[in-house]
Amino acid sequence: MKKLLMLIAIILFGNSVIAQNKLYLLFEFMKVEAAQEGAYLETETFWQKIQEQRTKNGDIIGWDLWSLQPGGKDQGYQYLTVTLYNDPVKMMSGAGNFEAAIKAAYPKMSEEEFNEKFISTAKSRDLAVRIYLEQIASTKDDFKMPIGTIAGINLMKVSDANFENYEKFENEIFKPYAQKEIEAGNRGNWGLMRCMLPMGSDVYATHITSDMYEDYKQLFNNNMTDYSTISEAETKKFQDGLATRDMKYKYMGTLIKKVR
Asked: Which domains, and CATH codes, for the chain?
């Protein structure tokens, strides 16, 4: 019920209230056969120029391509694209002049040539899962997310009964720890995203958290952080918070393409 009310609020208030100063993200998880790796990366290089034009046109505010680990044939997905919006209406409706972006990116390309590219795109990967998200919490930092950034992408499932408690835990308990790690130079950024669609009892995840690091060296330095000074009361709060969610899966992503 809580998730249904959230979606109704988005529809009712739209751009005027909800979208202000918020970030909306479209996650698209890709399955790519090993034999298609080269073709897929060539495909995304082609689409990157179109995403650059969409950004210039104000249709989106950015786009990323991440390589996922473990990402083996039997371990889910190999790549993830993330499209960034400042407006949920634009994200949900696919608003913007896509044809204008294509023509600006490839002014000499014929319709027949583009159709061939479109067909080759479909052949190079299986767009297996699409998730619409709203960022509901983030650390304060100036992390620029350069190419090579490492991100822990954590897929969480939270029951309706624990929804409020889980988001409170992330915001009030975990976020401050992440902020301290950033200030100590052991982390780049942390964020919490709530899934807008799909929703329902059969969804794999209701939330995604992201832990960003400059590289694997910073990541492993962070794992050596000394938490011995944490009090028993704080430890209890942390354990209670962890009990509010089921961490379904964790990917490690490496940023390989970026448009801003």
From this structure: 2-130 (3.30.70.100), 131-259 (3.30.70.100)
